[in-house]
Each structure stands twice: as C-alpha cells, then as structure tokens.
Write a structure and sequence with these properties.
EC 3.4.16.4; serine-type D-Ala-D-Ala carboxypeptidase; alpha+beta; 30% helix; 20 helices; globular; 5-stranded antiparallel β-sheet; serine-type D-Ala-D-Ala carboxypeptidase activity; Penicillin-binding protein 2a (Domain 2); 731 residues; Beta-lactamase; 4 domains; 21% strand
Length: 731
C-alpha cells in the first residue's frame, strides 16, 4: 500500500508543476503577442514612463488704445526660491547667514526672517524653500541685482502677470485680472468682457528620455504650438484719456469730492475716446479700493437740469416750442392736488420771461410747463423712450445698469422734465446727446474698436458706427444746438463764461441735482450737497466731441460755485482734445498763435539746429551733448505752435533733469525713445532712477516718482459765474 502511494505522488506533483508551467508560459506568450497586461498596453506604459511632457503657456492678448499704445499686457516677473538639499545637487545654499544678509535688503525683509525660512527648510529636510510675497513678482532690475550677488542655490522661476503700463489710467474701463489655477482670468472691465478672446490655448511639448532624464537620440519629440490670445484695440485715445485723468486728479486733490465721472465721445461715431471715474485705483498695486463700479455705466442717479436738453428737443420736435412766448417763472403747480415745484433761486423766479430765457436760466418751471402743458405727459414719455432712457445702451462693457423713468404720478411726470425723480446713467445721457449733435441720428456707444489675431495681426472683428434711433429730426437737432449755445453765450445763461472755450464755441447745459442721503433716506441738503454736472458739445454748430462731467459733493470755498470743479475738467479736456484732434477752431483766438514748421534736422549740427529752433520761438529739450542730431520727435515740415514740446536727441544722449515734468511730457519722452517706463504716484516728477547727466540708450529702463503739487491753503476764487448760477433744484 505504501509502495503504491509512493509511486502515485510524484506523478501528481509532475502533473501539477506541468500545468503551472504551461499556465505561466502561456501567460508570457499571451503578453508577448498581445502586448497588454490587464488591458493596459505595455508599450504605451513604457513610453509614458520615459516620456517628458511640458506645458507651453499661451500669451494673453494685449489691450491697446486706438493708436496702438499698450494699456494692458502680459509682463514677465520672477519668483525667487532657494535650493537647500545638498544631496540632490551641488548648487545649494552653503552659507545661510551670508545668504540672508545679502537677500534681505533687496527683498525688503529682515535678515532673521530670511534665515529662519532657510533653517526651517533644512531642518524639515526640504529640497527648496520660498520667501513669501516679498520674493514674488520681482522685476528685471531686482533679478539682476540678486544675480550679481552670485549666491549659491538661489534661483528664479519666470511667471507671467498682467501689467498696466499707465497705472491708474481708465482702470474701471480696462479692468482687472486674477490668477485662477495658474491662469490669468479677466474679472471686470474689458478684461472680463472679452476674456475668452484674450485667453489663449496652451500648447505642449513631449519627448522620450533615458533614466538620467536626457533626450534619446530619437526622442520622438512632439510640439503643439500654443494659440495665443487675440489682441483688442479700444476706441480710447491715450492722450485724451491722460488729459482727463490729470484734470480729475487735480480736482480730487483740491476739492475732495465724494464721486466724479467724466466721458468724452466722438459725436459722429459713438466711439468712447476717454472715460474715467473717481475714486479709482492702480491695477498694478490695488491696495484699498473705495469704488469698484464704473459709475459712467453702472451707477444711475438723478441727472438734474442736463435732462432739460431732451425736454427742449422734444418740445421743438413736437412743434410747441416758441422761444419768444412768455410765462410766469418762480413757482408752478400742475394740478390742484400736486406739490408745487419752484425755480432754483428760492422759488422767486425772474418774473414774466420768455421760454428761451427760461432755458438759459435753467428754469424748472419752464421745463415743467413745456413737458406737462405743451407736449403733454403721455407724448413726453414717448420722447423719453425714443431717447432710450428706459433701456441700457448696450455698450461693450460689463456691468451696465439702466436708469429708471419714474412716471407713475403727476408729480413724477412734472419733475422728470427737469431731471428729478427719474434716474439715468452718464452713458445713457451721452447716447441720447448724439441725436442732438448728429442731425437727429442717435448712435450706439462703443469702446472696442477691433480684435486682431496676436500672431498674424489679421483683423478678426471690427466695430462700426451704428445708428439705433432717430428720436428727432435734423432741423430739431440744429435748433436745439442753437438754444444750448445761448446757455453759454447769453449773459442770462447758467453756463455763461465759466464753460466758454478760447477757440471753440460750446453748446451745453449745466446741472445741479439733489441726491438721497443713504442714512436718512431723504434728499441731502446743504450748499455742497449736490451732484454738479455739465453736458457740452463742441464746436457748437456741428459738434465733433460730446463731453459729460459730474462732481458729487465737492468741498467749496465760500466764494466758489459748484460749477468750478466741473468747468475745470471740461475746459481743460475739451479745449485740448479739440486741438489735439486738429479740429478747426470756429471762433477767433483771443491771442494770435504763431504756427511754424519744423526745419530739416538730418545731418545737422546740434548747436546750429537748436539756435534755429529758438529763432522760431521754440525752446527744445536737448537730450545729451553730442555734436550731431540723432533724431527729433517731429518730422521736418510738421506745423506746430510754441506750446508743443520738441525733443532733440543728440549722438551722445544723456538723461535730462525730469524734475517738475508733467506726466504727459514723461509719456511723450517715453514714446520718443521707446523707454521701458514705470512710475508711482500722480502729478509731476519728483525723482528719477537715471540720474541727470547720466548716459543712457533707447529702450532703457526708467522709473519715475510722481507727486501732486502742493495746494495753497487759500485759493483765489476762479469763478466769474453770475449769481443766477443754479445752486438748488427742488423736488
């Protein structure tokens, strides 16, 4: 029995091992033939393990002004890190104390803080450490300064950020971006509105490597080029916008208003040439922001007497306007059970006057009687709707909010005629005003001019002027302009003298509107408790530009009217913008201005050329002390006046003293020599990074520090406005 068992068991084990062997061999054969294990391709897995894959980030598109000046662009900055693990590389931090001592002043950190981060990383056996926000977004100058120290283990990573070359410049319009999952994403303004266009599609690169991370001889490299974001050109003009920013900054410094808004539009196309608000912010250094809203499009308010422009136009179009017809000013009661409204001079009025004089004096009674008695409330509502005061303008910016026509009760139908109760936004006012300035044709406002492919510069889309309504006829528009011009030229006009331009006639209307105190829920009272505004068009007979300015609650001297800060902005921006656009003056200048031509400068000696310019009445800014002229910022034959700045660069350029230069002159200097300019502050140059007299080249980096001029404690009264200036409008 035992012998039989002994004979069988080896046979059984042989059979078992044979089966196992066949199974294993069969498995190997299957794997070899199929190339798969558990449904996974061995070849693909091997390729994946020995293949490096890298992302090639796409560049975000650039936002330009109408003439190609970059307003928002991708900018390379650097993040600093320190390698501290000596077992992985020979290039590591060898002396913690020395490294901390050298880095601390550049990073604006304490030595102890830098050393603590290094030592903590070493004790925790980290491969590398970073140094927080102070070591991020370093510029090229800081990077080069650190590299010059030649500190072992100190390295940099390139990172893209969104950079705004002009700082606090149309910031509400251009918008902001945010980093989300290492991607730059637009969150408001144009950045947010066309984020999909500006955002590109990342590319990739892959290749096979050996165990030492070196490319194989046949790496099977695959490159997918990134699809960069599209470039966007705005209708904004950098020079007109700069004029506006400078004027608003000066008013903000002197009058400390609660809010300000201003916008300039091309009357013939609807293009926004400049738009700004205060408070504002510098998108490169946000800090504490008091106002995120683009008030021009997103903050409806009661406009006050600027609404009388459209009451007047409606009356003319309806055929009920008789400028010589007389009415009793002072007070008006539309119905027995309706509250009495009054004129802004304490309801005293000016006796029995003509409707023309009533509009010139900004009489609430004149506007109310025109709307309620002459036009009729139902018909007047149709005109308000024809001017699109009940809808958004459709401007290509995010966050637009429409005002509201308040028109339920008789009192509301009366007060709407002079801009109380009913609300609107400045951009709605501008849109409606295009019908006055453009022969009755109302234009849609827009701020994006065209979109281009970043790489090929092919035009992908382009906006064109769009007529969106004709609320009045050409004859009505021209008659309205004549009446509005008399608001400025007539001695009775509330805009007399204070809104006059030197070289151009103006058609416009002042406004002084109440606003509701958020704490009490009632209209705020007080001499300064108004939103002062002005809507102006120039030249008056055929306007090229329309401008709206509003200033809320300015701090006024006892001798100043609320129109003082408004007129400062309007006159500075409108006059200079018309000149800059080479629009022919339509009235004689008070003082003749001599026009001269820039003489030929190529191949000329510096001294003789400069003397020739001086003989022509031009005081050029000479850059350097070279004997030969290298370049001039104006071409020979260009006609200029003595007011214009002429830069003359010699063949040995040296930095001029920029102290006291205006921001506009600094920008012109930058454009002339293509400098890499950065700045801080506002106003006029206080400090410069390249010292006066130092040699420099085109495209060099220049940093300037700007400072607002000191404002004397006692300001001389600048207003020569008449006592009839509207200082109050009653609900």
């Amino acid at each position: 029995m035992k012998s039989k068992t002994t004979q069988i068991m080896p046979v059984i084990w042989i059979v078992i091992f044979t089966i196992l062997f066949l199974v294993i061999v069969g498995r190997f054969l299957y794997i070899q033939v199929s190339g798969e294990v558990s449904g996974v391709s061995i070849q693909e897995l091997a390729d994946e393990k020995r293949t490096n894959n890298y992302n090639i980030p796409a560049s975000r598109g650039t936002i330009y002004d109408r003439k190609g000046m970059a307003l928002a662009q991708e900018h390379v900055v650097y993040r600093l890190y320190a390698v501290i693990d000596e077992s992985h590389t020979a290039n590591y931090v060898k002396d913690v104390d020395k490294t901390a001592q050298k880095l601390a002043p550049i990073l604006e950190m304490e030595e102890s803080e830098v050393a603590e981060r290094l030592n903590k990383g070493i004790s925790n056996e980290k491969f590398q450490v970073e140094f927080g926000s102070n070591a991020r977004e370093l510029n090229q100058e800081q990077k080069e300064e650190i590299e010059a120290l030649e500190l072992p283990g100190i390295n940099f990573i390139e990172e893209p950020i969104r950079f705004y070359p002009n700082g606090m410049f149309a910031s509400h319009t251009i918008g902001l971006t945010d980093k989300q999952d290492d991607k730059i994403v637009g969150i408001n303004g144009v950045e947010g509105f066309v984020n999909d266009l500006l955002t590109g599609k990342d590319g990739s690169i892959s290749y096979q490597r050996d165990q030492f991370n070196m490319k194989l001889l046949d790496p099977k490299e695959v490159i997918n080029e990134p699809d960069n974001g599209d470039d966007v050109y705005l209708t904004v003009d950098q020079k007109i916008q700069t004029l506006m920013e400078d004027a608003l900054s000066e008013v903000q410094e002197e009058y400390e208003p609660d809010r300000m808004s201003a916008v300039v539009m091309d009357a013939k196309t609807g293009e926004i040439l400049a738009l700004s608000n205060r408070p504002s912010y510098n998108p490169n250094n946000i800090g504490e922001v008091d106002n995120w809203y683009n008030d021009v499009i997103a903050t409806p308010f009661e406009p006050g007497s600027t609404m009388k422009i459209f009451t007047l136009a409606s009356a003319i179009e309806e055929g009920v306007w008789n400028p010589e017809e007389q009415y009793k000013s002072g007070k008006y009661k539309a119905e027995d059970n309706v509250q009495t409204i009054g004129d802004h001079n304490g309801r005293q009025g000016w006796g029995t006057i003509s409707y023309l004089e009533g509009i010139q004096r900004s009489s609430n009674v004149a506007a109310a009687k025109l709307a309620y008695e002459k036009i009729g409330p139902d018909k007047f509502l149709e005109y308000l709707q024809a001017f699109d005061f009940d809808k958004k303008t459709g401007i290509d910016l995010p966050g637009e909010v429409s005002g509201r026509i308040l028109y339920n009760w008789v009192s509301e139908k009366v007060t709407t005629a002079f801009g109380q109760g009913t609300t609107t936004t400045p951009i709605q006012m501008m849109k409606a005003a295009t019908a006055i300035a453009n022969d009755g044709k109302m234009l849609k406002p827009y701020i994006i001019d065209r979109t281009l492919d970043h790489d090929t510069q092919e035009v992908l889309a382009e906006n064109q002027p769009e007529v969106v309504g004709e609320p009045i006829s050409e004859e009505t528009a021209r008659e309205t302009l004549k009446v509005l011009e008399s608001v400025i030229t007539s001695e009775n006009g509330t805009g007399h003298e204070i809104y006059n331009l030197n070289d151009y006639t103006v058609a416009g209307k002042t406004g002084t509107a109440n606003f509701v105190d958020t704490e009490t829920g009632k209209y705020k009272i007080g001499r300064e408790s108004y939103t002062f505004s002005f809507m102006g068009m120039a030249p008056a007979d055929d306007p090229e530009l329309i401008m709206y300015v509003s200033v809320k609650e300015p701090t006024l001297d006892s001798t100043e009217s609320g129109s003082a800060p408004v007129s400062f902005v309007f006159k500075n921006v409108m006059e200079n913008s018309l000149r800059y656009l080479n629009i022919e003056p339509d009235k004689e200048a008070k003082e003749p201005i001599e026009v001269v031509e820039i003489p030929e400068w190529e191949g000329k000696q510096t001294d003789s050329y400069v003397n020739k310019l001086k003989d022509l009445g031009i005081a050029p800014i000479v850059i350097g002390d070279g004997e030969q002229i290298k370049k001039v910022n104006l071409q020979p034959g260009t006609k200029i006046t003595s007011r214009q700045t002429v830069f003359v660069a010699t063949d040995n350029m040296k930095m001029p003293d920029l102290t006291g230069w205006s921001f506009r002159d600094v920008l012109s200097f930058r454009d002339f020599l293509d400098l890499d300019l950065e700045w801080t502050g506002n106003g006029y140059v206080k400090k410069q990074s390249i010292e006066k007299g130092s040699s420099f080249n085109e495209k060099d980096y220049l940093m300037v520090e700007l400072e607002e001029p000191d404002v004397p404690e006692e300001q001389e009264a600048t207003s020569d406005e008449s006592d009839d200036e509207e200082n109050e409008e009653e609900q």
